[in-house]
Structures are given as C-alpha cells and as structure tokens.
C-alpha cells in the first residue's frame, strides 16, 4: 500500500503538472470503488489551484470553488498523466483537461477512493497530526503514550496518534533509534521519544527524496517506480545481516503486520 512518502511524491508531481489546468470532461467509468463516487459534474470548467496532502489523502483544490476533490490510492491505486492515453482495464475515472491532457485514476484492487471533501468529512475527523508538524513533538508523544502498555511499533502506526507512519517506515525509524519494536510505549523516556521523532522524519524525508518505495503496485504519476526500497536497513530483510552489527535480522508479527528488527542493536 502506498504510504506517506509515496503519496507525497504523487502530490509533488501533480502540483507540478496539473496546477492551472481546467477540467473539461470527466469520464466516470465506474460508479463505486471502495465507496460510491459522487456526482463530479460540478468540477467541469474548474481550474486547479493547488494540491494538498493530508495523511494519505490527496486533496485537489480549485480556484473560485469551495469543494475539493479527494483521492486515496488504497492498496494499488495509481494516478497517471498523459495525452491520448490508451484506456486500461482498471481506469475508473478519467479527467480530461481543456488543453488536451488527461489524468486517470487506475485501481486494480478497487480499495481506493475518489470523492468530494464535502461528501467525506468523516474521513479526516480522526486523524492525528502530520509527522513534520510542530505539534508532533516529544511532549505530545509522551502524553499520548504514557498510559499505553502496547508495543511502540503498532503505537506509532496508529493514525489517530500521528498520520503517515506506515509499516515500512515504523520498522526503519525504530532501527535508526536503536529501539526494540516490542518496547512498551509507556516505558520510553522523553529523550528517546525525541530521537524517535527525529528518525521518523528523517526516514520519511529520505523516502520522499527517493520517490517513495516500490514493492508491488506503486507507480509515480510519471509512471516511474520509487527507489527507497534499495535503502532499507531492516524491512523485508529477515535472515540477512544487520548493516551495523552483522547480526541476523529477525521478523515477528505485531497487530497483524510484519515487523523487522535487529535483536542486538534494538535490545
């Protein structure tokens, strides 16, 4: 599933390529994917002003129009840009711009979302702060975790605590912090939480710089794959040697997700 760096990479490319374009026609090839797609005819003739990301949601804003288009990539969603693109089997919505270019939302597994913000306010109500925001600091994290006895790895993946720290980046950030994923969340001192926040931000930014991580379906809006998977220290490397101490990377399951860690570096 695309995580925050992948979605941010798509946002940056959309900001570069479709800002200022005006929507002409919208080809709605399916009326429902994860949730029903509402009537999008109100977007006809609207000029795109900017692209925003909130958690893993893309918000496309328009000039002189109060509503916004919301897109979530789900498990396998892709946004593709081009001119005269050949229609693919899983192109569910195609936006035709007045300059002749197109933007299509393609999603083979149909877990993605295409909707309007006015129709989907509940999607945003429970979300915690962004990991790069000033709100997400050691004081905030300490107060949120001081009563949590659950392990730190699933805790920092809780989207009500902080958004965008998915499975890959949680494992990588904990390794950089030399913190065991099994450590009870309420047993971590404030100084260590400060270090963890720094490493969460660093690993996310490193991935954004590399265009995200491509493991299965993820493609950037220009069709290219991300490259951060070549920089993983522990994720997906069970049985391989730790890049620091040469111990073998181990794998456990936490909250139904695979966790990868070094048993020596992350005691």
Features:
10 strands; alpha+beta; about 270 residues; 5 helices; 4-stranded antiparallel sheet; single chain; 2 domains; N-terminal domain of MutM-like DNA repair proteins; elongated; about 20% helix; Helicase, Ruva Protein, domain 3; about 20% strand
Explain how this protein is built.
- The chain is α+β, with helices and mostly antiparallel strands and 267 residues long.
- The protein has 5 helices and 10 strands, in the order αββββββββααααββ.
- Mean pLDDT is 92; it is low at 214-218.
- α4 (167-177) crosses α5.
Number of E strands: 10
Q: Looking at CATH, which topology of the largest domain would you report?
A: Helicase, Ruva Protein, domain 3
Q: Class of the largest domain in CATH?
A: Mainly Alpha
Distance between the termini: 29 Å
**Mean pLDDT over all positions:** 92
| Relative helix content | 10-25%
The share of residues in extended strands comes to: 15-25%
* Computed CA radius of gyration, to the nearest angstrom: 20 Å
Residue windows where pLDDT falls under 50 for at least 5 positions: 214-218
The tally of domains stands at: 2
Which structural class should the secondary elements be placed in? alpha+beta
Would you identify the CATH architecture of the largest domain? Orthogonal Bundle
User: What is the helix/strand order?
Assistant: HEEEEEEEEHHHHEE
Strands in their spatial order, largest beta sheet: 1-6-7-5
What is the count of DSSP helices, taking H or I runs of 4+ residues? 5
How would you describe the shape? elongated
- How would a crystallographer describe the biggest sheet? 4 strands, antiparallel
């Amino acid at each position: 599933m695309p995580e925050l760096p992948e979605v941010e990479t798509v946002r940056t490319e959309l900001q570069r390529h479709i800002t200022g374009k005006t929507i002409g026609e919208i080809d709605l090839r399916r009326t429902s994917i994860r949730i029903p797609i509402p009537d999008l005819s109100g977007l006809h003739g609207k000029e795109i002003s900017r692209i925003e990301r909130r958690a893993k949601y893309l918000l496309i804003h328009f000039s002189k129009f109060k509503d916004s288009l919301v897109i979530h990539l789900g498990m396998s969603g892709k946004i593709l840009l081009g001119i005269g693109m050949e229609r693919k089997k899983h192109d569910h919505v195609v936006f035709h711009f007045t300059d002749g270019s197109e933007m299509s939302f393609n999603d083979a597994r149909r877990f993605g979302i295409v909707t309007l913000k006015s129709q989907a306010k509940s999607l945003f109500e429970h979300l915690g702060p962004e990991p790069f925001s000033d709100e997400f600091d050691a004081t905030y994290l300490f107060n949120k975790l001081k009563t949590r006895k659950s392990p730190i790895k699933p805790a920092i993946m809780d989207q009500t605590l902080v958004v965008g720290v998915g499975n890959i980046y949680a494992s990588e950030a904990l390794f950089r912090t030399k913190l065991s994923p099994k450590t009870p969340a309420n047993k971590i001192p404030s100084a260590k939480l400060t270090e963890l926040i720094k490493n969460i931000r660093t690993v996310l930014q490193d991935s954004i710089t590399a265009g995200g991580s491509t493991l299965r379906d993820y493609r950037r809006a220009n069709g290219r794959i991300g490259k951060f998977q070549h920089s993983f220290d522990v994720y997906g490397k069970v049985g391989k040697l730790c890049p620091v101490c040469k111990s073998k990377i181990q794998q456990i399951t936490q909250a139904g997700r695979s966790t990868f860690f070094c048993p020596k570096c992350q005691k």
